[in-house]
Design a protein that fits this description.
Beta-Lactamase, 11 helices, five-stranded mixed sheet, four-stranded antiparallel sheet, 470 residues, alpha+beta, elongated, Helix Hairpins, 4 domains, disordered C terminus
Length: 470
């Protein structure tokens, strides 16, 4: 539907054009025929009807012959007509002008209606296709763009407070009272907008948008509830895992320490020196086990709280790898280190990298069969340094690898007797914090290979194109 300003502008332009043509014809009326002038007037009337609508066309169809009679037909400046032929010409002009202007106006109106219907169909098709996690934002953006609004906001009102759910545009309202118009779409949610006044047809299409927004807001609330429920479920799962760890993995070493200490304190038994040493070794080993478990719990707490801040600097692997093996105590005796000379330094936090390697190497030693050795090597691959920890234990199936990198997840309680399922999770988290990547692979002929990739402090490309294999 055409707006009134457009019709007024078309009518004004038509009046100016008629006046200009009339002035031209008056200056040439001795040389121009009345029928020729009426033909040109007819073109102007058709144009006015097309742009200004039916009413403007009818007015111009009546005004044009009156103007021609007044200025171009003798006697001039009077409405009298002496020549019957001129009267016929004027009557034919009026009839043709009215018919043509009516048809042109109707055609223009139908074309405008068809264009509006096409735009509405396009908008509805976009609405029907709106989906995905940002569907609400997409629909509100479409609403703001389609109607050329300054800003749109979906506002939830709870206990006198207005909370913005989603906004669009350069100047969205923050409260329904600030909006030029608003529409409630539920008991507590309002769509508010700033911008120009809309036509009746535009309001009709806008209500289709409101219906779609109401559905998406409801889906948004359901998704929020589902996310909260999932967070509660994960928290409950984590709490259960921690309780299981405390009840099993912490109680076992404590029981062993208490048993050994109680035995040593018995005054009615004279223990041989060898047995006394065994009791003391048991206390020391179980204390180390407790220290590892508690350290892992503290490290995981720091990772989940985002409190890990690596101090990255060049780190020589020939220094940190032996230190990591030494940190696991007697278990390091079954580890073979293969460190090629002239390796560039890794860009890492030395303390965190040693912690990562100690966790992975200790894990590899624990799951290796008796007599099997763990191999630790390092190579340069493209712009990375890769550290390989290779064991020949039971390995981990590809389908389970993502699981074992999650905190407090173990494939089987029977596979581990000295941890709470945090070793690989902490190694993965600390490696990521240093900008690296941890990957689990199969060892040829059975077992697990853990690959740690770290950036080089010296970013020179590798000279050996075949690098990248342990």
């Amino acid at each position: 539907m055409r707006s009134s300003p457009r019709r007024i502008a078309a009518g004004a332009a038509g009046a100016v054009l008629l006046a200009a043509l009339t002035a031209l014809f008056v200056s040439l009326r001795d040389d121009i025929d009345v029928s020729t002038a009426l033909g040109i007037y007819l073109l102007v009337v058709v144009g006015i009807a097309a742009l200004g609508g039916r009413l403007a066309g009818i007015v111009s169809a009546v005004a044009a012959p009156l103007i021609a009679n007044w200025f171009l037909i003798e006697p001039y400046r009077t409405l009298r007509i002496n020549d019957p032929e001129n009267l016929t010409e004027l009557l034919v002009f009026v009839t043709v002008a009215l018919i043509v202007s009516t048809f042109v106006s109707v055609a223009a109106t139908r074309a405008a209606d068809a264009e509006q219907a096409r735009e509405e169909a396009t908008n509805l098709a976009r609405l029907a296709g709106s989906g995905g996690p940002d569907a609400l934002q997409v629909v509100v953006d479409q609403l703001c763009t389609t109607f050329a609004l300054d800003g749109v906001a979906v506002i939830e009102q709870i206990d006198g407070r207005s909370d913005l759910i989603v906004t669009s545009g350069s100047n969205p309202p923050t409260d329904p009272a600030e909006a030029d118009f608003s529409e409630p779409i539920s008991d507590s949610v309002v769509v508010a907008a700033r911008g120009r006044a809309l036509t009746v047809d535009e309001h009709r299409v806008m209500h289709v948008f409101f219906g779609q927004i109401a559905k998406l807001v409801e889906q948004h609330h359901v998704a929020e509830l589902a996310a909260e429920a999932e967070a509660f479920a994960r928290a409950d799962e984590l709490r259960t895992a921690i309780l299981r760890a405390v009840s099993h993995d912490l109680r076992s070493p404590l029981a062993a320490i208490k048993a050994s200490a109680s035995s040593l304190r018995q005054s009615d038994v004279e223990w041989p020196e060898e047995i006394r040493n065994d009791f003391l070794a048991s206390i020391e080993d179980e204390t180390d086990r407790l220290t590892t478990i508690v350290s892992n719990l503290l490290d995981m707490g720091r990772l989940q709280a985002g409190a890990v801040r690596p101090a990255l600097r060049p780190v020589p692997l020939e220094e940190v790898l032996p230190a990591a093996v030494h940190s696991i105590g007697a278990r390091g005796a079954s580890v073979d280190l293969v460190i090629p000379g002239e390796l560039p330094d890794a860009l890492a936090d030395p303390a965190l990298l040693e912690r990562v390697l100690a966790n992975i190497i200790a894990n590899a030693v624990e799951f290796s069969p008796h007599g099997e050795r763990v191999r630790v090597s390092a190579v340069q691959y493209r712009r990375d340094l890769q550290i390989y920890v290779v064991d020949h234990g039971p390995g981990i199936r590809p389908a389970d690898r993502a699981t074992v990198l999650q905190p407090f997840h173990r494939l089987s309680d029977s596979l581990s007797s000295s941890g709470v399922g945090l070793g690989l999770a902490i190694a993965d988290g600390l490696t990521t914090a240093m900008g690296g990547h941890l990957e689990l692979r199969d060892t040829p002929n059975g077992g697990l290979t853990v690959v740690i990739s770290l950036a080089m402090a010296d970013l020179q490309p590798p000279s050996d194109p075949k690098a990248g294999t342990p």
